[in-house]
Amino acid sequence: MMIKSLTRINELAKKQREQGLTDIEKEEQHVLRQEYLREIRGQVLHTFSRLTVVDAEGNDVTPEKLKNDKENGFLIE
């Protein structure tokens, strides 16, 4: 899944390297990077919410904390 703001983040990074950014562009870059990090963290949490740990014999050995968090909906966006 492509994050929509990634294209603009890359455009600003390239401009920063080549010419520098205005104060407004620096603020935009900061806001976009924060949104990007928030989305990445959400994707990671979503992945963990579906995680089950299985040992070599096929037994579910998912840590209790993860099981509880999944049951209580703490990991789902």
From TrEMBL:
Per the record, the domain of life is: Bacteria
Its localization reads: Cytoplasm
Q: What is its main location?
A: cytoplasm
- On whether DNA repair is a keyword of this UniProt record, the answer is no
Keywords of the record: Cytoplasm
Give the family from UniProt: Belongs to the UPF0291 family.
HAMAP family annotated for this entry? UPF0291
Family matches, as PANTHER family: UPF0291 PROTEIN BC_1827, UPF0291 PROTEIN CBO2609/CLC_2481
Q: What is this protein called?
A: UPF0291 protein JOC58_003346
- Organism equals Paenibacillus hunanensis
